[in-house]
Amino acid sequence: MTGLRISRIQSLALMVGLCASVTVNAENEAKNGLDFELSDGQQFVQLSKLPAQTTVINFWRFDCPPCIREMPLLAAQARGNKARIITIALHRPSETLAAPAAVQSALRPPTIALSGPGEARGLLARFGNRQGALPHTLVLDAHRRPCAQRTGEITQDWLETAIAHCSTS
User: Fold this and answer.
1) Separation CA 149–CA 112 (nearest Å)
2) Domain chopping of the chain, boundaries
3) Least packed by Cβ within 10 Å: which of 51, 61, 67, 112?
4) Is the dihedral of CA 138, 43, 61, 122 positive or negative?
5) What CATH number is given for 37-168 in this structure?
6) pLDDT digits (tens, 9 = 90+) for 87-123
7) Which strand ranges, in their side-by-side order, compose the sheet holding 55-60?
């Protein structure tokens, strides 16, 4: 009987510890901003290591027509230098290479083109997209805190408004 009580007490202590750990991690992420470390095919890029700047993060796939349509808009915004543009491909790098020429052009610098993880649901959920629908665009302020997001195809008006709002927050 004593062994059973200790086991229950230990189980309860473990559950309390896990809950506290999740809470602390969530508080740290809210306080310190969102972060990730993903590959651009040549090196790993960690969001928190980049200079402070308003940042647009766009999650996309090669087989998503609205994702493909918004690429030139994102590239034009990157060239305008009002915000950092990061695209995260949620497919194999070889599939990015097979994307249309307009997408290939849009993924060139100053756009930062990264490859996401094989299973992207956790990353998408952390960045505000629990359903996993694409495209998903998130705008972060200079402290890497989310200040605008949209699931579905973005427009130039939405993007410019979101960047302006996040640049002043």
Assistant:
1) 19
2) 1-32, 37-168
3) 51
4) negative
5) 3.40.30.10
6) 999 998 889 888 888 899 999 999 999 999 878 888 9
7) 44-46, 37-39, 112-115, 84-89, 55-60, 136-140, 146-151
- Per the CB < 8 A criterion, the answer to whether 39 and 115 are in contact is yes
Tokens 């009580």 sit on residue: 5
In 3-state terms, what secondary structure has residue 42? coil
How is residue 67 written in tokens?
Answer: 């994702």
At 2-31, the pLDDT tens digits run 444 444 444 444 333 333 323 223 334 445
The tokens of 10 are what?
């230990």
Specify the pTM.
0.79
Separation CA 124–CA 67 (nearest Å):
15
Question: Pairing mode, if any, of strands 146-151 and 136-140?
Answer: antiparallel
